[in-house]
Amino acid sequence: MVRLSELPEYEREHLLAKNMPPLGPAVWTEAKSPLSALRIALITTAGLHYRDAPAFAFADSTFRPIDGDEDPDQLVMSHSSVNFDKSGFTEDVNLVFPIQRFKELATKGTIGSVASVHYSFMGAGLLPESYEDSAGQVAGLLKQDQVDAVFLTPV
Amino acid sequence: MQPPRALWVPFPLGRPLGKPADPAFQTKVILAALELLHREQGPVLEDFPHDAPTNMETQATACPVSFAARAAAGDSWQARLSSEFATLQPWYELSLRRRDGRTLVGLADKAPRDNVDALATLLDENKTPSDITWLKNAVEDIKAFYFEAMTAQPGDYDSDALQHQFWQESSLGAAILAFHDLFNDAQQAQMKLIARLLAPREAVADRDKQQAKFTGGHSND
Q: Does residue A22 form part of some domain?
């Protein structure tokens, strides 16, 4: 998550002006196993999907599943916001969706395993409540995949 | 939002892992975040203390194309955009070869070249399109073509410098800002929202500042 001080002035003011209340009570779940035993999934709000999946609409609370075994270099980005840098993603998908880094960590035994499916949202144009149904679905899918923790990459 | 664990990183928005093509640094960011999993209580919001590395020896000083002489006075948008697109074409093809065919181009139904022609025709007639989904996908595709061409040579690129070159020096940047203005000048709030889908607030402000310098301190808004 980028620091507010790193944002362009316009973007910082835009976000601070939203002045949103906290989203429900803070949640906290202890990790009961060591890192080397945890199964981890990636979730990004960068609007990523494979080319044959439907592009995200301008304001869109749905999500796209990303099969961890497919070639991540085939992922494209249909995020509606123009207020963040996309040039780095052009160079390296792992900058936003670090699937190869997590597979390396699993191979080394640093983490237990990588989930079989990961998830992509498009974070723009809607308030957090709009994502409640989709987030609930993804939570269920993650449980089915026996995922212990998720690594979120907002853009 | 109060996520249970968050690592606050000093990287530009859109680069959550810090630096492209630097697996060691990306892994360092990931491990710093994963370390938060075993804190005894939360929520945890922790600073990542390292800036993304820069290697001045491999830093590309500029994109391979100069946009400085982009337009002669009186050129049509069609002439300006066609000429610029042709200049970038070989660099885009180099990018495809260097990146093993990887490209973000392809959201729109038609090829970028066809969409450039269609956008130029609209601007030369001072019109806005009615199909906003087409406009957005066409613009995003052509932007991807430009950025992939502009970063075709290996090396580190400064994202701020790239954004400045695109929005303030290229004819395509000027064309998208012209569409932004056409929508933003409309009365309906929905049209103003479309303007915001086309150009970053910062690019519009920078362009207005530049114009103000040339017009003796009066911006166009």
A: no
Q: What pTM, to 2 d.p., does this model score? A: 0.88
ipTM of model: 0.93
d(CA A11, CA A14): 5
**How far A102 CA sits from the closest chain B CA (Å)?**
8
Where exactly are the structural domains of chain B? 5-47, 77-214
Q: Which of A82, A111, A126, A130 to mutate to test the interface with B (most CBs of B within 10 A)?
A: A82
- Cis amide bond preceding B43, omega within 30: yes
What is the tens place of the pLDDT at every residue in A16-28?
Answer: 888 888 777 888 9
Residue A11 inside a domain? The answer is: no
Task: Give the DSSP letter of residue A73.
Answer: G
Residue A68 lies in a domain: yes
Residue B45: beta bridge partners?
B6
Does residue A8 belong to any structural domain of this protein? Answer: no
As for how many domains chain A has, the answer is 1
Q: With beta carbons under 8 A apart, name residues in chain B contacting A47.
A: none
